[in-house]
Amino acid sequence: MRVLLVEDDEPVAQSLRRGLLRYGFEVEWVSTGAAALAHESPYDVVLLDLGLPDTDGLDVCKALRARGDVPIIVISARSDETDRVVGLELGADDYVSKPFGVREVIARIRAVMRRAQPPRSEASPVGPDRYGPRLTVDRKAARVHLDGEEVALAPKEYDLLAFLTEEPGALMSREQIMEAVWDANWFGPTKTLDVHVAALRRKLAGAITIEAVRGVGFRLIVNEAGAGSPGQNSSGQGAGSTS
């Protein structure tokens, strides 16, 4: 997910940027309102400080909202109710007061992105998602099929697979996976994640590969040919694994 961060306080911006990158976000940082309005690269959500050096952040919020429907989250030291109300009336989707934690900002981002997604039409039901020639994931029914046969997955195994298949090929950190699949406040060891990854590798061998990147996390690769790649063993790790 691409984030445009508009913040003139460099320590705050760098800290927030590092935290977002750690959770798999792509972050473009600008420090002025003019730079925000001139930014041409596409982005999915805006984190906007109100105390900018060249213009009031509320004016930037209004201008960005006039351009389109990209979610805008105001992040500001202004905690006065009037500023909150004005920001929301000018088009902001949410308002976070400083100081804040990275986890809170991420939760707000995910919340506004869920609200921004158009509802699925009941007249046009969405069927199972297919990943390569062998694997389908039916998120509505929470069922997984391999070669047309249903695969029995434990609840957390299904949740892990559903999360990793949201962005095949993307590297997901351990912290990001634990927060999404287990608990946003998980601070203990993550050995349970390795156990569930091993179970998915065993049950879905040949259809997908779950690569481990040492010290970082995992990425799911769809095997389009429907079979394991050369050098693939039964654990789902190839000879060139980085785990």
From TrEMBL:
SMART domains (alphabetical): REC (SM00448), Trans_reg_C (SM00862)
Keywords: DNA-binding, Phosphoprotein, Two-component regulatory system
Statement: the UniProt record of this protein carries the keyword Phosphoprotein: yes
Pfam family, one: Trans_reg_C
Presence of the UniProt keyword Membrane in the record: no
Modified residues annotated as 4-aspartylphosphate in this record: 49
Any GO molecular function: phosphorelay response regulator activity
Annotation: DNA-binding region: 126-222
CC annotations in GO: cytosol; protein-DNA complex
GO biological process, one term: regulation of DNA-templated transcription
Span of domain OmpR/PhoB-type: 126-222
Domain (Response regulatory) ranges: 2-113
Lineage top rank: taxon: Bacteria
Protein name in the entry: Response regulator transcription factor
Natural source organism: Streptomyces spongiae
